[in-house]
């Protein structure tokens, strides 16, 4: 076998990106051997086992990230949700699910919990929670929410980017159906939390979710106006 076999093969059919190989070469010898052993083991198992192994590692990393950031996320998220009378005591499972959902959308797990990353994740979580809130509202409550916004630009943004896609999703899934009397307008959709979470990520992408989380502090919200009268109307329509 030619002594140049390894180099010739890399030149002809290189799989690893140059950036990975460069970083690999900068690791200490122990880390390089560990990575080589892991990759060798990984190559020896079935595709199903490979998939499970990757998922196990992702879940393990998410546990570490959630433990390191839970206090920050709990404090910052709740401080914003208080304005909307939403109590969200982020449990360990909640935080891990958000990390996992973020990973599914981006395909990346951060190497370090930088302030920029944590702030973006906070906006992502707030955005999801507000979308869940809108999903759980009756159409009348949604209308009162966007009517409360002082500027037309804010009303239009809230309605066309968030409320209308939610209404369309609920109508497609036949969660809310129109009836001749119009009572559907006052009825809240009957969805459990897991169903709503799935709907959130079917309807909205990462940028739109995070944008709402960033915009949250500019939104007006009056619980008694939005929910009080709507609850009374809902009760009368049954």
Tally of helical runs? 11
- Report helical residue fraction: over 70%
Q: How far apart, in Å, are the first and last alpha carbons?
A: 82 Å
Provide the β-strand percentage band. under 5%
Order of helices and strands: HHHHHHHHHHH
Strand runs, count: 0
Radius of gyration: 24 Å
- Judging from the principal axes of the Cα atoms, what is the shape? elongated
Mean pLDDT equals 86
How would a crystallographer describe the biggest sheet? none
Structural class, from helix and strand content? mainly alpha
Instruction: List unreliable stretches of 5+ residues.
Output: none
Oligomer: single chain
How would you describe this protein?
The protein has 238 residues and is mainly alpha-helical. Helices cover 72% and strands 0% of the residues. The protein has helices at residues 5-13, 18-26, 29-44, 47-81, 92-106, 115-135, 139-148, 152-172, 193-203, 206-215, 223-237. Helix 6 (115-135) packs across helix 9 (193-203) and helix 7 (139-148) runs antiparallel to helix 11 (223-237). The model has no long low-confidence stretch (mean pLDDT 86).
